[in-house]
Amino acid sequence: MPSNKLALLFPGQGAHCHNMLDAYIGTREFDELYPVICNAVGYAPLQSIGDDPSLINTNLLSSILTVLASCLAWKRFNEESKAIPDAVAGYSVGQLTALHVAGCFDFPELAQLVALRARLMDDCFRSSAGAMLAVIGLPQKTLEDICCRLQSEGHSVWISNFNCLGQYSLSGTREAITAAQTLAAEQKPKKLLELPVSGAWHSPLLKQCQPSFGDHLKNHHWHSPRIPVIDNVTGDFLPDDAELIKEQLVKHLTHPVRWETGIKTLISQGYAQFIEIGYGNVLTKFGFFLDRTATFESFCGDTRTVCVE
Description:
- By secondary structure, the protein is of the alpha/beta class.
- It folds into two domains: 5-124 and 205-306, Malonyl-Coenzyme A Acyl Carrier Protein, domain 2 (3-Layer(aba) Sandwich), CATH 3.40.366; 130-197, Malonyl-CoA ACP transacylase, ACP-binding (Alpha-Beta Plaits, 2-Layer Sandwich), CATH 3.30.70.
- Helix content is 43%, strand content 17%.
- The protein is built from eleven helices and ten strands.
- The chain has helices at 28-41, 45-51, 59-81, 94-101, 107-123, 140-152, 174-185, 210-218, 242-252, 259-268, 282-290, and strands at residues 5-10, 87-90, 130-136, 157-164, 167-173, 191-194, 257-258, 271-277, 295-299, 304-306.
- The strands form two sheets. It has a five-stranded mixed beta sheet with strand order 2-1-8-9-10. Strands 6-3-5-4-7 form a five-stranded mixed beta sheet.
- Helix 1 (28-41) packs parallel to helix 5, helix 3 (59-81) runs parallel beside helix 4 (94-101) and helix 3 (59-81) packs antiparallel against helix 5.
- The longest helix has 23 residues, at 59-81.
- The two termini are 28 Å apart.
- The model has no long low-confidence stretch (mean pLDDT 93).
């Protein structure tokens, strides 16, 4: 089995910062793509963030600017390396970037899709607060037991992200996450961190927005992907049929991100080189804990780094 196949990885929210686009501002690619983002959002997001840097942590701006940074980095990566990926994978909203790179839809469609998705997600938490907690250094079984205990007490909390061995995230109501943090702390994890998000992403608390998102997707024509794309919901490859892909994206709203399973699926199929395209290196760091025989790198547009932790 060949062992030199290349997969490109696209980050999701969490890989964002108020100056994440500095390496691109003033370039031809930025001048081409940024107006499309402004049109999808309805205003100039960088100007708003300049006035109030905390806005970068809102769901809409963090997700759409993360996607923009990845697309700009991908264009630069193509120009510099000429490498052709054999597959792509994206983390959470990054899965939409991956589908764009795989040829399913153009950049304006991507921008509109990300903006709509963010607004529908936010609508689920207008009347009740949602939260997320990153947990590092505890076994999956321990977190499953914590969630089961809290659910039996009437709390809404679930594991929302399976990143790699010992690195998970929980999603739930604000009260449930506070209770989960207390119980998790008793088990002496390496780190507990409440994430800077405005909702309980990838949990059943987003169920109410699934019909609207599904109806929107049905009204748009997509192409089948030109290269394989990993599915966050199953950790396997997405189907070739565009309509079936849409069904998985609707499930994606309420189902956990199975990143660890997805990367292991690629490795089992002979993929040994992984390059994270976009701002930050979160996925590259996950790779170190997933398989040390594979190469994980990050390409941020102005730097390229190999994970050697």
